[in-house]
Amino acid sequence: MPQSEFTVSDVPGLTVPVVTGPGAVQRVGALAAQYGGHRALVVTDAGVAEAGHADVVRDRLQEAGVEAEIYSSVHENPTTEDVEACLGPARAMKADMLVAVGGGSSLDTAKGCNFILTNGGRMQDYRGVDKATKPMLPFIAVPTTAGTGSECQRFALISDPDTHQKMACGDTKALACVAILDPVLTCTQPPFVAACTGMDALSHAVETAVTNVSTETSLALSHAAFRLLTANLPQVVSNPDDLAARASAQIGAALAGSAIEHSMLGGAHSAANPLTAHYDIPHGQAVGLMLPHVVEFNGKDDETGRRYISLLSGSEEKSTSELSQCLRDLMGILDLLRPLASFGVERENIGALANEAADQWTARFNPRPLTAGDFERIYEAAL
User: Fold this and answer.
1) pLDDT exceeds 80 at position 120
2) β strands within the chain, DSSP E
């Protein structure tokens, strides 16, 4: 599977067509032409541009007769200001296609740009689901990480710079027309970045398995993603040249991203977002630190506990505590496990963090209702 191509018809519940395997990025020009692109803005960040990946995409686009320009000023955890900045070059070249190359930040910025470029207004107008009334431009996703799964999601996660709230702006018209998963593109990731993005993907697999809107489809995707990610993430970090492991991790991230489309996320993401906003803890690390504690909280519900346990091999003899320990062990292997206090979080800050966490959109999908008081206890356990 990692070395081949598969599409929606091959994987039930996968939300977009996917081309995968070493060298898959070389097909971006032909795919862009297939989906009607004539003038494509390549949206990326400075690091990915420096690694040369955006140049490869631009060159393949141009070889296929698609005019292409690179915008490389995406920032991590994009805000509405980042989306506005991306609009300028898109409008200037009269782009009729967007191609995002990078991590979730690049993909989300491109999606956000697509909303406003085609439908006008501000990102705040699209918070929620299906607020766009006009068609959107074709969008090709080329992730260079195995993490967010944004390539398979309709949501752009864009932060409000004033409130620090992440706005989930979702529309089926914002889905990529195709995602290109080329494991070679992930080889330039530093090990720490690979670990953080991989842990983010794994958290998607765990949380989507138990939300209060989960389905049989999302559960199947969650299980497949969990198996691929737990089996391959340690190898990705310890042996960066292992393309088979990288390809499997990329597919795991895409499956987990598709699971979000069917099931949404829960309390671990709600608790992680304020940590990233106020203490600059990388998102994947923040959600990984919160996840074992949220698993223990949710596992007190019998049905949720059974769903958690079913993720583990030989699950009949397992317990929820073994899943939370498995997650801690993996965080340790990936060199991400640290107490919150080591990032500067103090006990007197916990109340404010808990209030923010309780207001996060994903909290409403947690299988057990979460109050600010519950979040306080979760933060204290991780302090």
Assistant:
1) yes
2) 18-20, 39-45, 67-74, 97-102, 128-129, 139-143, 155-159, 166-170, 178-181
- Scored b (16 or more CB within 10 A) or e, 282-314 reads bbbbbbbbbbbbbbbbbbeeeebbebbbbbbee
How many alpha carbons fall within 13 Å on the CB side of residue 44?
Answer: 29
Q: Does the pLDDT of residue 177 top 60, yes or no? A: yes
Q: pTM of the full predicted structure? A: 0.92
- pLDDT the model gives residue 362: 93
CATH 1.20.1090.10 fits domain 186-382: yes
Of 179, 144, 378, nearest to 261 by C-alpha is 179
Question: How do the domains of the chain map onto residue ranges?
Answer: 18-185, 186-382
Whether 358 contacts 370, CB under 8 Å: yes
Sequence-distant (≥ 6) Cβ neighbours of residue 121 within 8 angstroms? none
pLDDT, average across residues 286-292: 98
Residue 149: its H or E element: none
CA–CA distance, 236 with 263 (Å, rounded to integer): 27
Local confidence band at 9 (pLDDT 50, 70, 90 cut-offs): very low
CB 249 within 8 A of CB 228: yes
Encoded tokens for 147: 């993490």
Residue 17 in tokens = 């067509």
**Number of C-alpha atoms within 13 angstroms, CB side, residue 375?**
28
Asked if residue 303 has pLDDT above 60, the reply is: yes
Q: Report the first-to-last Cα separation within the chain, whole angstroms.
A: 41
> Hey, which bits of 144-246 come out as E strands?
155-159, 166-170, 178-181
Phi and psi at residue 22, in whole multiples of 5°? -55, 130
- Return the pLDDT at 192: 95
Strands 166-170 and 155-159: antiparallel
Confidence label for 10 from pLDDT (cuts 50, 70 and 90): low
Per CATH, the architecture of 18-185 is what?
3-Layer(aba) Sandwich (3.40)
At 345, the amino acid letter reads V
